[in-house]
Automatic annotation (TrEMBL):
This is Cytochrome P450. Belongs to the cytochrome P450 family. Keywords: Heme, Iron, Metal-binding, Monooxygenase, Oxidoreductase. Pfam families: p450 (PF00067). It comes from Lophiotrema nucula. PROSITE patterns: CYTOCHROME_P450. The keyword Lyase does not apply.
Length: 512
């Protein structure tokens, strides 16, 4: 070995040593900073969660969507306020929920922009002002009147569901409601957004967006830790991404499909095949609230993914939960069926106004919505203008603070036996023990300026679908139990145990 190479070997090992020392010093300083000097250092919680986001990553990625559950256990130990990552505070206090989400109209939402690969859709929009104009552009399409203008199309899809039920009855085969409902809600929202649908409800196996949206949710945990994932996925050809990550294929297909639909519309193709006078898509394109930068191909694709996504899984899960519990509880079924018999003496009729007067049906919908949560994820907000006060705590301005809907749905003080399906808890002048109206704690549609935009559409679908089903049919569960509707994983939306075969039922038409 010559002198030159000895010298260069020595300097290489010096560089390596120096790098190691620098890394150790950096990590130690970061740990000391996050534990003792960080503005959130005084907040309770596990030290590991305060030091590194890998604590969160372990529960979300390795254990597949279990951090929400862990956080609930941590609240039992540390109290209502916790530091759950180095930069985030979580609060579990049902009585603070309303105040937290409505405390200011200038709340920003950091974090969800990385989750779905559609950062400029309404739901994940970070800045409150951008959100305000994007929401204004969509609002009129979600008013009661607009939904009533669209209701004949919802009726058509519910008729198709009824025809499919007759088919399964004739074949004496179990029907998979877990798959049928996303096909129903998918066809409805496609008709409303684009003006046509993929007839997923007519597909023999109810092929739908269901799997793709579950994948979006699951990948969100990865994207939270590695925000480059979606930008990389978007920049690679689909074939390569699909080869690298086969489980992303349904998601890629969905994204590609929506991208192409928007390209065709922008190029002047008419996709609309239904008789609707306006689609959500046209409404966005014509909106005076939006600047040109909000009408680009990419932004429209983001909005399509978010609105179609918002319209599919949430309502479908609430329908699945309602159906399972009503079928599983003969007394609930009997009471509901009797009520529907009075409201709709003619079995072919499905009338929204009449169904809305059915108190017990409404109570069943409240209960299934409570148990379906809408979203199971921590729902972050940032008070950027001033510190947020919670009890004796002052949370510095600019801190991400989150609360979680399932925490309220399962607050035993407010909803005793909260895991059980008890529609009766909503009847009459329902109140908590200390006299607060119970509806105040129905938070599954969120609260404040960013609460669910599709609430009227969701309620309309729930009334019409459940009204039709439990007026016209009787059902028997086939190899399904409560674990097929309980949350096993928080993939942003609640997901049941992963090996669930779904809620399968035998169908029989009623004779009355
Ligand atoms: C049972 C059914 C549903 C439930 C429980 C539900 C729940 C929710 C929740 C909790 C949020 C608020 C997220 C937040 O606070 O940041 C939300 C937002 C949203 N939902 Fe729903 N949803 C349902 C059905 C629908 C339907 C049918 C649509 C129709 C497209 C829809 C569209 C949206 C949209 C666009 C947003 C974003 C609103 C915004 O950021 O301003 N949802 N939903």
């Amino acid at each position: 070995m010559d002198l030159g190479s000895i010298v260069s070997d020595l300097s290489l090992s010096r560089v390596a040593l120096l790098s190691l020392v620098t890394a150790v010093v950096y990590v130690r300083s970061l740990v000391v900073y996050r534990l003792y000097l960080h503005p959130l250092a005084k907040f309770p919680g596990p030290r590991l969660a305060a030091i590194t986001s890998w604590y969160e990553a372990y529960y979300e990625i390795v254990l597949k969507g279990q951090y929400s559950r862990k956080i609930s256990e941590l609240h039992d130990i540390y109290g209502p306020i916790l530091r759950v990552t180095p930069h985030e505070i979580h609060i579990r206090d049902s009585r603070f929920f309303q105040q937290f989400y409505t405390g200011s109209h200038r709340l920003n939402k950091y974090g969800w922009d990385k989750r779905f690969g559609s950062a400029d859709g309404l739901l994940p929009t970070v800045h409150w002002e951008h959100h305000k104009r994007r929401r204004a552009a969509l609002s009129s399409m979600f008013s009661r009147q607009s939904i009533l203008n669209f209701i004949h199309i919802i009726h058509r899809h519910i008729d198709t569901l009824s025809v499919r039920m007759q088919e399964f009855e004739a074949r004496k085969e179990p029907m998979n409601l877990t798959l049928a409902f996303p096909a129903l809600t998918g066809d409805i929202i496609m008709d409303y957004f684009f003006g046509f649908n993929y007839a997923q409800l007519k597909h023999p196996e109810f092929e739908s967006f269901h799997e793709a949206f579950m994948k979006v949710g699951a990948m969100g945990h990865l994207a939270t830790q590695f925000p480059a994932i979606f930008p990389i996925m978007n920049s690679l050809p689909d074939a390569i991404t699909g080869w690298l990550e086969p489980s992303a294929k349904p998601l890629l297909a969905l994204k590609r499909d929506q991208w192409n639909l928007i390209a065709r519309t922008l190029a002047g193709d008419t996709l609309k095949t239904n008789d609707l006078s306006r689609t959500i898509f046209q409404e966005i394109l014509d909106s005076k609230h939006l600047p040109a930068s909000d009408k680009t191909h990419r932004r429209l694709a983001d909005e399509a993914q978010i609105v179609v996504g918002g319209g599919v899984e949430t309502t479908a899960f609430a329908l699945t939960i309602a159906s399972f519990h009503i079928i599983n509880n003969p007394k609930v079924y009997a009471r509901l069926h009797d009520e529907l018999l009075c409201a709709l003496p003619n079995r072919t009729e499905v009338d929204l106004q009449k169904l809305e007067r059915c108190e017990y049906l409404k109570a069943c919908i409240m209960e299934s919505t409570r148990l379906s949560y809408g979203l199971s994820a921590r729902n972050p907000r940032t008070y950027d203008d001033a510190p947020l006060r919670y009890k004796e705590w002052v949370i510095p301005a600019g801190t991400t603070v989150a609360m979680t809907i399932p925490d309220v749905s399962h607050d035993e003080e407010i909803f005793p036996n909260s895991r059980e399906f008890v529609p009766e808890r909503w009847l009459g002048d329902a109140k908590t023990k200390d006299g607060v109206p119970l509806e105040r704690f129905m938070v599954s549609f969120g609260r404040g300026t960013r609460s669910c935009l599709g609430i009227t559409l969701a309620w309309t679908e729930l009334y019409l679908t459940l009204g039709m089903m439990f007026r016209r049919y009787k059902f028997e569960l086939f190899e399904a139990d409560v674990s097929d509707v309980e949350m096993g994983h928080d993939f942003f939306i609640p997901v049941t145990k992963l090996d669930s075969k779904g809620v399968r039922v035998f169908v029989t038409a009623t004779s009355d």
